[in-house]
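tokens incoming
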């Protein structure tokens, strides 16, 4: 059943609609797993299972069930004393909540603290430690980006990309792509559009080889198309939109297909003006 949680989580980045439908279908089994673990498992295991289910329920309209899972997770983490992956995830989750609420100054302090803890523990402290160090770089970079410190944010995103690529797991590759997208956003905010274009082109060439990142690459192609349109490179922009359109059709995402067609229509207007 734990593999089901991992499957549904990874499916969110391939086909979010299918992931939500399967999560609702499997919800009784997921909750049964959590209750079984709560009765027989250690606090670390309970927190880990609850955290996975919480992530699946976050954007579903199941508020009471979601809060129930959150309560179980928060109770279980009080019994965890040593620094490990579960403790890391707990603190990382706190940073995510601070970002969502717009408390960026507090988020910066907490994320810097998490970064320092992760580095102090080292990449061999526990099985997931190397991944957690990469994630700490990513989180700190995100907070720096939120407060407008784009140059420093790029440094941490680049460190995160390198460390995620060293981990060599599906989730690490996905996160490397996410960090690259964040880096490109920073370059755009610094008005370094040429550098942003180069970064996008290099990343798309690499990540297109990874099947489970097709959706992310398509989103990147739309962003790259927007940048190219802004620089009046309309033919290149059209190729990006067409490539993204093909991917979204294969993923059966009608709203994303509509967005691509909308962008292509805008291209036609500007290219003729």
């Amino acid at each position: 059943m734990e593999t089901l949680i991992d499957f549904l989580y990874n499916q969110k980045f391939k086909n979010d609609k299918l992931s939500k439908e399967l999560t609702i279908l499997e919800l009784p089994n997921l909750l049964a797993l959590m209750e079984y673990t709560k009765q027989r498992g250690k606090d670390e295991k309970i927190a880990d299972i609850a955290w996975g289910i919480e992530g699946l329920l976050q954007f579903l309209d199941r508020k009471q069930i979601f809060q129930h899972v959150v309560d179980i997770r928060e109770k279980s983490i009080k019994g965890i004393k040593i620094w490990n992956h579960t403790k890391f995830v707990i603190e990382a989750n706190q940073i995510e909540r601070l970002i969502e609420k717009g408390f960026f100054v507090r988020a910066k302090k907490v994320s810097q603290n998490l970064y320092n803890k992760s580095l102090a523990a080292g990449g061999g402290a526990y099985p997931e430690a190397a991944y957690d160090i990469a994630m700490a770089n990513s989180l700190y970079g995100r907070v720096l980006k939120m407060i407008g410190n784009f140059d420093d944010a790029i440094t941490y995103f680049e460190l995160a990309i390198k460390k995620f690529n060293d981990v060599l797991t599906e989730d690490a590759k996905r996160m490397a792509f996410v960090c690259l997208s964040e880096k490109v956003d920073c370059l755009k905010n610094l008005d370094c559009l040429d550098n942003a274009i180069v970064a996008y082109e290099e990343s798309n060439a690499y990540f297109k080889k990874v099947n489970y990142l097709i959706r992310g690459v398509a989103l990147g192609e739309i962003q790259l198309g927007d940048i190219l349109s802004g620089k009046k490179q309309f033919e290149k922009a059209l190729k990006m939109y067409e490539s993204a359109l093909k991917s979204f059709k294969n993923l059966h995402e009608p709203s994303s297909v509509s967005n691509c067609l909308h962008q292509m229509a805008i291209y036609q207007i500007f290219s003729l003006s």
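note: Residues 204 and 217 are 6 Å apart (CA to CA).
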